[in-house]
Amino acid sequence: MTVNLKNPKNGSPKLGIWIFGVIIGSILMVGAGVGMQISDRRPFCASCHIMNEAAVTHKISAHAELACNECHAPHNLAEKLPFKAVAGTKDVFFNTFGKIEMPLEAGESTRLVVNANCKTCHHMTNTTVASMDAKGLCTDCHRNVQHMRMKPVSTRSVGDV
Prior knowledge:
Number of domains: 1
CATH topology: Multiheme cytochrome fold
Number of helices: 8
Helix content: 55-70%
Mean pLDDT: 78
CATH architecture: Orthogonal Bundle
């Protein structure tokens, strides 16, 4: 009994489909990664006219080297994807059809994410400042740290930095 190993009909179409799937999947993954990085940055966020003041004030801040979503989105990819999908859809809808209140106010979920990201990056401050639990969120005391730098010093409260 002999086995014909050279028969092209034995598995080759399945192998071709599998290779094609891997190539398409790789292209989609790279595209999604590039899209995520582009949509995390200030130029993308600033492309909407209502975000212009936030983008300008962020650009001259101490955190100017950070992408917007390093503060405004979860760092964990499994949490970041649905968070960005919901926030992005909401932003597009209200920018297109809704009444926009100025200045923009972060929603509760964004405020909690920002607070967690503050604590992650500034972990040494959390260990050296005795009154870290004086208020619920970092931004309760340090409001407008990034987006109101253009506000005249004479009109800022102590916590506005």
